[in-house]
Amino acid sequence: MASGWRRAFGNVRSFVGNSMGGLRGGSSLASWIVAGTLAYYLWVRPSQQLRREQEERAALAAASDPYRYVEKRKPIPDPQETGLVYGSKNGAKKPE
After folding, report:
1. What is the pLDDT of residues 40-64, one digit of tens each?
2. Closest Cα partner for 86 from 96, 65, 71, 64?
3. What pLDDT, on a 0 to 100 scale, did the predictor assign at position 65?
4. Helices (H) and strands (E) in the chain, counts
5. 25, 61, 68, 96: least surrounded by Cβ within 10 Å?
6. What is the mean pLDDT of the segment spanning 65-78?
7. What is the pLDDT of residue 86?
8. Where is this region: Disordered (predicted)?
9. What pLDDT, on the 0 to 100 scale, is given for residue 19?
């Protein structure tokens, strides 16, 4: 019985080792650290900075004119008639 789980554990270990390119030990760990660092500085960090800059620009634009009109309600879509409906309609529909 003990050899069953040992064999399964060895198979899992072998699969994980092969999926990581067949490298073993410190060289494998070092290569993953280098790859992760490069991915962070080439993709993750620039996208975070871009998002932060866009938020700052949006905040500056909103603060530049404090008296501008801002729609507080979301319109309800009504594709059958006018396209947008704000609240309840007044009056009944006209017969044709």
Report:
1. 999 999 999 999 999 999 888 877 7
2. 71
3. 76
4. 3, 2
5. 96
6. 72
7. 58
8. 71-96
9. 74
> Smallest Cα–Cα separation from 35: which of 44, 47, 48, 25?
44
Structure token pair of residue 40: 């962070």
In a domain, 76, yes or no: no
Is 29 part of any domain? yes
**Could you tell me the sign of the dihedral formed by the alpha carbons of 26, 30, 36, 37, in that order?**
positive
* Count of domains forming the chain: 1
User: Is there a domain that residue 14 lies in?
Assistant: no
Domain ranges, residue 41 = 25-52
Q: What's residue 61's pLDDT?
A: 81
Distance CA 65, CA 17 (A): 59
* CB distance 84 to 75 below 8 Å: yes
DSSP assignment letter at 74: P
